[in-house]
Amino acid sequence: MGVTAVAALRKLVPPPALCGFLLLLAVMFVASYAAGAAVGPVAPGIHETGTSRDGRGDSGGGGMDMDMGDTHGSGGR
User: What is the mean pLDDT of each run of 10 residues along the chain (77 residues)?
Assistant: First the structure.
């Protein structure tokens, strides 16, 4: 390899700072995905109801159906 081949190869390789940034970005993505998978769902009572044919969700609920449990305050009576 001559001096011109090394110079041409250096022009093709991205700068080390860019490679480091992309590596850091990939590591942060993997770490956040692993943390989210370990924690599980944030609100377990929420279930998707699906979408209609035109791509919009059901009536005004944002496509979610929330199960609030016993919210009437009967205290199990």
Answer: 79 90 97 92 73 56 58 59
Backbone angle region of 51, left / alpha / beta, with phi > 0 → left and psi within -120 to 50 → alpha: beta
**Alpha-carbon torsion (19, 22, 28, 30), positive or negative:** negative
Instruction: Quote the pTM value.
Output: 0.45
| Nearest CA among 40, 58, 38, 36 for reference residue 49 | 58
The residues, any chain, with a CB within 8 Å of residue 61's CB and separated by 6 or more, are 49
Cβ neighbours of residue 34 closer than 8 Å, sequence gap 6 or more: none
How far is C-alpha 31 from the geometric centre of its chain's CA atoms? Answer: 11
The DSSP 8-state label assigned to residue 61 in this structure reads: S
